[in-house]
Design a protein that fits this description.
Helices cover 22% and strands 31% of the residues. With 231 residues, the protein is an alpha+beta fold. Strands 1, 2, 4, 5, 6, 8, 11 and 13 form an eight-stranded antiparallel sheet that branches. A hairpin with a 2-residue loop joins strand 9 and strand 10. The longest helix has 14 residues. The radius of gyration is 17 Å and the shape is globular.
């Protein structure tokens, strides 16, 4: 069996100026600090364009085929981004803008069930970035340029540091796999490169994950905890 695909740069390119114009419509106080405060240094902020309750400050996501999300007030000022999202013919379970400010870094970490082989995947579209951003995925540096569209297998350990002089802002979309996305993903990769491997989570790892979720103290976190307790 071939190795799982870590990342893909799709043959999609979006208008950088229109993307930047959308972002410039967002007020600075609308950005909220990311909830995983132990996972980063400096300022890492986020806002939702779609969320479970239609509020832009609801940034905790739980990728699931049952998740239903609603457009937030921010999307009204991001018409080009809405056009891009409408062109993606798959169910979205989270749509956010993530901003990593100058001299900030996200520590090495991995996410849960966010590889295409899991049926749920993550796309990155850089809007503002610079050559001194270091995104490391499974010990390999990935350079994502403005207006490009990338799949990142977030199950693998990844980190990012902004050593430049300009904040880094990405549009990040979590979606559910379907026939439309299969056609996109399989253009240059074979289907067996997206076969799910069984990964057993150690009891200690699970306990740490559950403890972190409990600190969030909200309904979505409680739902994830309940699912993990059954596994």
């Amino acid at each position: 069996m071939k190795e799982l695909v870590r990342h893909i740069k799709f043959p999609l390119n979006f208008d950088v100026e229109r993307l930047k114009n959308d972002v410039e419509n967002i007020k600075n106080d609308q950005w909220k600090a990311h909830y995983n405060t132990n996972d980063y240094n400096g300022n890492w902020t986020s806002l939702s364009l779609y969320s479970s309750d239609g509020k832009s400050d609801t940034i905790l996501v739980s990728p699931s085929i049952d998740t239903e999300i609603i457009a937030t007030e921010i999307l009204n000022d991001c018409l080009y981004i809405k056009e891009i999202l409408d062109g993606f013919q798959f169910k979205k379970v989270a749509v956010r803008l993530l901003r990593l400010e100058v001299n900030a870094e996200v520590k090495p970490h991995s996410d849960h069930c966010l590889g295409y082989e899991d049926g749920c995947f993550r796309l990155h579209i850089p809007i503002i970035t610079n050559p001194n951003v270091e995104f490391i995925l499974d010990n390999q540096r990935i350079i994502m340029n403005k207006g490009e569209c990338w799949y990142i297998n977030a199950n693998f350990i990844h980190s990012v540091a902004n050593h430049g002089t300009e904040d880094r802002i990405h549009l990040v979309v979590d979606g559910i796999r379907n026939e439309w996305t299969d056609a996109l993903f399989f253009q240059n990769n074979s289907e067996n490169q997206f076969q799910k491997r069984i990964r057993l989570i150690k009891n200690e790892e699970k306990e740490l994950m559950i403890a972190e979720l409990r600190r969030m103290n909200n309904a979505v976190a409680d739902e994830i905890i309940a699912k993990m307790m059954k596994e």
